[in-house]
């Protein structure tokens, strides 16, 4: 399974670029009942392909789930400047990672169900028409003019295939999610209302989906 959001460290024309993790899909996570999870001092070994959960038939693999958790842990350390994680905080991180993983699967499935997926060609066209800030900054000259011709050549340059592939992948996440939000919240009149309606859809999707949670079988928590 490919999650809609991953930790990506990109470099474009010598400039560092960071794409946010798993984010990508919803700004607000659906609530869950928190339970205290004690960190195991001697976690059991698991293969990356082991099943942590299943959402409507889609497997959440241990390796993917662990990557999400690692992202949350890194965020905590960076923001708090404290690498000591209490059991209570660990519980929050485990639950947050689970919600993130389930949410990503549900959103991915809904995008394909509603036929909102975009081709790489469409993504590149969108990048040229309205590049995100990190690209706009790299291709704007000293007079403040966006050099779309240079950007177009960069996106088509075979030498930059790996970087372009990651950028297109990140933009695919953002643009497809935006399309889904616009569709689900078509009756919204304000951004806040749009997010509220999208959250309502997400809560309903989580409540009505077939979700198997196997986290308790994994000794690392």
Number of strands: 5
Mean pLDDT: 81
- The tally of domains stands at 1
Number of helices: 7
Relative helix content:
40-55%
Large-scale geometry: globular
Multimeric status of the protein:
single chain
> What letter string, H or E per element, gives the SSE order?
EEEEHHHHHHHE
Give me the side-by-side strand order of the main sheet. 4-3-5
Described by strand count, sense and barrel closure, the largest sheet is:
3 strands, antiparallel
Distance between the termini: 23 Å
Low-pLDDT regions = 1-38
From the alpha-carbon coordinates, what is the Rg to the nearest angstrom? 19 Å
Strand content: 5-15%
Which structural category do the helix and sheet elements fall into? mainly alpha
Q: Can you walk me through this structure?
A:
It is a single chain. This protein is mostly helical. The protein has one domain. It is built from 7 helices and 5 strands; from the N terminus they run ββββαααααααβ. It has helices spanning 62-80, 87-113, 120-129, 133-138, 148-156, 161-184, 191-208; strands spanning 8-12, 15-19, 51-55, 58-61, 211-213. The strands form 2 sheets. A 3-stranded antiparallel sheet has the order 4-3-5. The protein has a two-stranded antiparallel ribbon with strand order 1-2. Strand 1 (8-12) and strand 2 form a beta hairpin. Helix 1 packs across helix 2 and helix 3 packs across helix 6. The longest helix has 27 residues, at 87-113. The chain is globular and about 55 Å long. Mean pLDDT is 81; it is low at 1-38.
